[in-house]
Structures are given as C-alpha cells and as structure tokens.
TrEMBL record:
Keywords: Amino-acid biosynthesis, Aromatic amino acid biosynthesis, ATP-binding, Cytoplasm, Kinase, Magnesium, Metal-binding, Nucleotide-binding, Transferase. GO terms for cellular component: cytosol. The keyword Iron does not apply. Monomer. The gene is aroK. Substrate binds at residues 45, 68, 89, 145. It comes from the Bacteria. Catalyzes the specific phosphorylation of the 3-hydroxyl group of shikimic acid using ATP as a cosubstrate. It comes from Microbacterium stercoris. Residues 194-212 have a biased composition (Acidic residues). GO terms for molecular function: ATP binding; magnesium ion binding; shikimate kinase activity. It holds the Pfam family SKI. Belongs to the shikimate kinase family. This is Shikimate kinase.
Length: 212
C-alpha cells in the first residue's frame, strides 16, 4: 500500500480514519486520539460546512447525491494529510471513498441503539428528519450501512459504555501495533479541526448536529 504524506513531519503516515453510525462518538474520540498520537485531526463534516455551508441546507437545496460528491472530495482532502480523520456516517457509501480508504487504517466505532438515543434526539440530522421515531430511523440506517462499514474497517471498537479515554487508549494501542511509524510519532500538540470537546462520558456524546 502507498502512504500519503503527513503534514506533521518528514515521515509519511497513513491516516487513521474513524467510520461508523451517527452518534458513535467519531468526532470526540478523533480529537482525543489525535492528541494521543501527536498528529492532526480533521472532521470531514467540518470541512464541508466551512466550504459549502450547513449540511442540512445542502441536502435541502441540492439533494443527497450532490452532498455525497462534496463529501467524497472532503474525504480525499482530509486523508491526504494523514493524521486522524473522522468521517460522516454516510461517507463510506461512495465507492470512490471506499477505494481510497484501503490505503489507510480504518477503525469502526459502534454504539448500542439504547445508548445512542440520548445522543441523537432533537438534533438536526437530515436523514433522521422523517415521520419515524428518530431511533427507529437510526437503526434502519445503521443496519443498512453496517456491511459497508465492516467491509472497509480494519478493527472495531464499541463506544457504548465506559469513558471515552478507554476507547481512545484502545485505538491508539491498535494503531501503534499496526504501524510502527505511529509508535515513533511525536507527542507534540497537533492542529485540531472543530470545537474542543471536554466531556469524557460517551453517553453524553454530542456529534455535529448535521452529521448524516
């Protein structure tokens, strides 16, 4: 496999990519993981919002296919820099994104439906804005995407219970075991994309309201 050039130093590092359903904790865990590994963190939803505006408006004005194309380009931009990258829940649906992820470390974050209920209610997530109960809609979307997540993932970590720090530690250990370059990476503070999240309880996790 080829490796992208990481912006943090001369050593090329493959990106550590977090995938999984809405509300699994990808953004919060990603920020902490990047600090632990001493690399940058990028959130593709944040990149899209910065360049194109709120995701809910993109869905409403241009439709999902247009959004997926924007998302695919954001993923390619993010992983080209290496570091830790958190993807939106539907990002792996794009075939080109799945192909691009093969060259990187991909961790699937899972979460139980009863735990995610508190994380997604009353949030502005386009694909959950239906007549169905939000949790029922979440389960339907999660089940439809799960085979795709598992196809691209190299390892799976559950975020349903316990502090986020335990999940971060487990992922960091996995990455360092799989990739000696990360074991040798600097622990210096790294650039972070998105607002800082200091809550250490995954049950209180609040992902971007716009995540699909």
């Amino acid at each position: 496999m080829t490796s992208p050039t990481d912006a943090e130093g001369p050593r090329a590092l493959r990106a550590v990519v977090l995938v999984g359903p809405m509300g699994a904790g990808k953004s919060s865990i990603g920020r902490r993981l990047a600090k632990t590994l001493g690399v940058t963190f990028r959130d593709t939803d944040s990149l899209i919002v910065r360049e194109h505006g709120p995701i809910t408006e993109i869905f409403a004005e241009h439709g999902e296919p247009h959004f997926r194309d924007l998302e695919h380009r954001a993923v390619l931009e993010a992983i080209a820099h290496g570091g830790v990258v958190a993807l939106g829940g539907g990002a792996p649906l794009h075939p080109g994104t799945r192909d691009a992820l093969r060259a990187h470390h991909v961790a699937l974050l899972t979460v139980d439906a009863e735990v995610v209920a508190a994380r997604i209610r009353n949030q502005k997530r386009p694909l959950l804005n239906t007549d169905d109960d939000p949790v029922d809609a979440w389960i339907r979307i999660r089940d439809a995407r799960d085979p795709i997540y598992r196809d691209v993932a190299d390892a799976t970590f559950d975020t349903s219970h316990g502090p986020l720090s335990d999940v971060v530690k487990a992922i960091a250990e996995w990455v360092r075991t799989e990739d000696p370059d990360y074991a040798a990476a600097s622990a210096a503070p790294a650039e972070q994309t998105g607002a800082e999240d200091t809550d250490d309880d995954p049950q209180d996790e609040k992902e971007s309201d716009d995540e699909r």
